[in-house]
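To: structure subgroup
Subject: Chain for Friday's discussion

All,

I'm putting the inputs and outputs inline so they're searchable in the archive.
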Amino acid sequence: MSTLAVVVLNWNGLADTRALLPTLAACRVPAGWRVQVVVVDNGSSDGSPQALAAEFPRSSCWHCQTTGASPGATTTESATRLRRAPTR
């Protein structure tokens, strides 16, 4: 089975990310494909990582330790984690 990984970057955007995730879960993909949604949080202080992990258990929620880092640093950390992550 092939996987389409959708990476959502979040920083204190709980309401927006909360609205987006059900839409992604409803996406249709061709036969033989699946969608893997990964939320990458960049040091939010609004409780996003905990709330999203609890509300969307089928999505992976990663809390990056690169608070305040550039988007490039967050993207690099995310790519590294995706390569190492087991498929669900």
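Points worth raising on Friday:
The radius of gyration is 13 Å.
The chain has a mean pLDDT of 82.

D.
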